[in-house]
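Homework help thread (please don't just give me the answer)

Our assignment gives two proteins as sequence + structure token strings and asks us to describe the second one. The first is just a warm-up. Here they are:
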Amino acid sequence: MNIDIKFVHAADVHLDSPLRGLERYEGAPVEQIRGATRKAFVNLVNLCIQKRVNFLILAGDLYDGDLLDYQTGLFFANQMSKLREFGIKVYLVQGNHDAQSEIAKGVRLPDNVHTFSSGEPHTLVDQELGVALHGWSYPTRAVTEDISQRYPDPLSGFYNIGILHTSLDGRPGHDHYAPCSLQNLINRGYDYWALGHIHQREIVTEKPLVVFPGNLQGRHVREAGAKGCIYVEVSGGQTQIDFHPLDVVQWAVCTVNLGGIETPAEAIDTAVEQLRSHISISRDKLYAVRFVFQGATAVHHQLQKDKEHFIYNLRAAVNDVSRGGVWIEKVLFETRQIADIHRLLEEYPSLKNFFAILKELAEDDTIGPEIAAELKGFYNLIPQEAVFGDDGLNINDSEFLRAIMIQAQKMIIDELVS
């Protein structure tokens, strides 16, 4: 198979989806945040042109739902026209967020864009390049069947690429849509599987290549690290792939252990040094950083007593060293008072049973409905914006309840010691 092609594989663009969880404060670079998904997409288009690729694959979730603003669709169409000027084709499938039932407002696209329909999985052939692309779009948001087994057989003498928006055999934090086994994908006999839906970059297997490129731009702290696309070169029967970061805002979690720290000022200095070692601050990228302070420390009570003043000084110190290149997304305090908990339990044996009950509750996944019933009246009074979202007070989430139980135990210990 003497085929020489170059293409880019991207997914989960979520154009114009807002970045979530960022706190506003004086000096926060709000303008740099707006349009981050668009800027990342422009970087993608520019990379395709720079590399002179033959085509671009978009493996689902181009949009984040229905086009509430026509400008989003117009922006995409303009970028596709830019690729057409350089003879670059685009092949895309629709995923759960931009399924045909979810997008009511269609936008006319230039003729270099080929969207796979939501009927049966089918094949688009480029005779000149010697490439066969097999794909299928979601007809509705929730697809729970294994669609991969209905994909067409590979074409002999062609480089075969399968495009599928799938959870594969399941990944944490993602809906279980279009599930399939890795073995089923391998059995299709394709050369490359261009997957989407999972926002974490992953090369699932190399023979054949089964790849999740991750999303193009991280949107919250659970999508930390570099985001971008996969650049692919096929020559002489060999396929080489490279990851290219394209995001303009990168999320990071900076964990700072305050063991041995004596003053809040020293805690801030330690946090700044930890930040410098954690990320490479540059003028080309904005970092949204969550600080998590941990450990048994002498400054625990000072931090708890005046968190706002501490955070204010932390922001000032971070702005000083980053020159506006770092936005503090949130500051979490998980410190505790220095104490000999074993001596405390020996002095008050009844506490052992109390903490044993807390531990048991934290590990019991069946306790959730009981707690939800107890807190129903209180829960209904909480504003909706405080309930939903990545850091919402979701009492129906077992992981959230477990974290609350652990926090409660720490708070009780701190109070007893103090």
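The one we have to describe:
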Amino acid sequence: MLQTKAHPEDQLQDILDRIAEQAHALYGQGKVASYIPALAQVQPRQFGIAIALVDGSCVSAGSAGTPFSIQSISKLFTFVLALKLMGDDVWRRVGREPSGAAFNSMVQLETEKGIPRNPFINAGALVITDMLTTRYAHLDIALLGALRRLSDSPDLNWDMQTAKSERDTAHRNMALAYFMKSYGNFVNEPELVLDNYCRQCAIEMSCAQLAQATMFLANGGRDIGGMQEQFLSADAARRVNALLLTCGAYDAAGDFAYRIGLPIKTGVGGGIVAIVPGVGTVAVWGPELDAKGNSVLGAFALERLVQETGWSHD
């Protein structure tokens, strides 16, 4: 087993180089997200991976510096903001159980009276964005500011073309919002919330930036970059990681937990971020998705990485 605490950079670099080479053999086994026109135009055969360690070092391979649309990975950050602001009051309007259904499903909402199963499916993320829209006059700017600080990347931004593309085709998300509003679980006008939601999904980050931005979850809630602050309490960070382990990969969360065993969040832009508590964070990107909307190459790379390192969520 790799000794991750003592001078791991050279060993990790060798591992990442091998994984990147092996991942290329999987090109063509998935498809880019086509239901969002801007994502349908992304060049499919790309792969990047970056590891940020709690000692401040970082190793990477492939296209780790190429920005991509983080999409549903943004749900992790909005959830953390809501948890910081509202604490356990968050759970009055959203659950914390795996859904077992597609990320944009409406089925459970009717049987469960407008309360989404968790913050990482679309309905749950819309409720979280509704909460934050009430608290922030300009939520999009507030979220972007937090991500810029966490990633030490002051130029971080969202892609306006992708945001518009998502907003123009957000019919199902709009239906989810109005459906929850009919149950009294939506405060603001759905149109305003959808504007914020589509902009947050269209934020672009590289693997290296994403790994840095999530470091606080591997480090007991404390950021090790330019902020050097306790961004989240250690107890809250542990709870966020638990939710990522059980709910972070849509209706494939159980399979990911079995195969990879780390807290993760996936996005239909092809990104996946994984947390190794006490060690560091891993971000992978491959735009080709499987049938459930998760990166084919990203899932492969994370599974190979934990096999090589012995890393786990313990």
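TA reply:
I won't write it for you, but here's a hint about the kind of observation we're looking for: The beta strands are 48-53, 58-62, 68-69, 157-158, 203-205, 264-266, 271-276, 280-285.
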